[in-house]
Each structure stands twice: as structure tokens, then as C-alpha cells.
Design brief:
The relative contact order is 0.23. Helix 2 links the parallel strand 1 (about 15-20) and strand 2. The chain is about 40% helix and about 15% strand. It has a two-stranded parallel sheet with strand order 1-2. The chain has helices at about 5-10, 30-45, 60-70; strands at about 15-20, 50-55. The chain is an alpha+beta fold.
């Protein structure tokens, strides 16, 4: 059984380069740093895409909201 390609599932195409992180959304995981780097890289490389997949643990909802706002 063929599994769907994650690039196609989230971005509708396979001809991109995808980077990301999967795990809890927490300051020591570096999501804000990833977003800052992604913004710089995507400005120069139109075929790049980034994903952050995960949830914030209880008590870290404000950080999750900060991550969302940075995107």
C-alpha cells in the first residue's frame, strides 16, 4: 500500500525540500530558532518548506502561542 507523501499532504506538491521538527512545543526544543532560520532560508530558496508538529505540555500554552505568532 502506497503511503501519501507528507510534502504532498501538507503542501500539495512533492518537488520541495521539507525540514521540520516533531515533538513537544517547548522553549528547549528551539521552535522559535527554527522559525527564524526558516524565514531567512525561505527568502533565498523558494522550494523550501518547514513544519512544526507537536503540542505544548500543560502550562506552556503561552509559548505555543508565541510560536504560532512567529509564523
Amino acid at each position: 500500500i502506497a503511503r501519501p507523501d507528507i510534502r504532498e499532504r501538507f503542501f500539495g506538491r512533492r518537488d520541495i525540500t521539507l525540514f521540520g521538527t516533531v515533538g513537544r512545543v517547548h522553549p528547549n526544543k528551539g521552535q522559535l530558532e527554527l522559525i527564524a532560520a526558516a524565514k531567512r532560508l525561505c527568502a533565498r530558496h523558494e522550494d523550501l518548506r518547514f513544519l512544526i508538529i507537536g503540542a505544548a505540555p500543560p502550562g506552556w500554552e503561552a509559548y505555543r502561542d508565541e510560536v504560532r505568532a512567529a509564523i
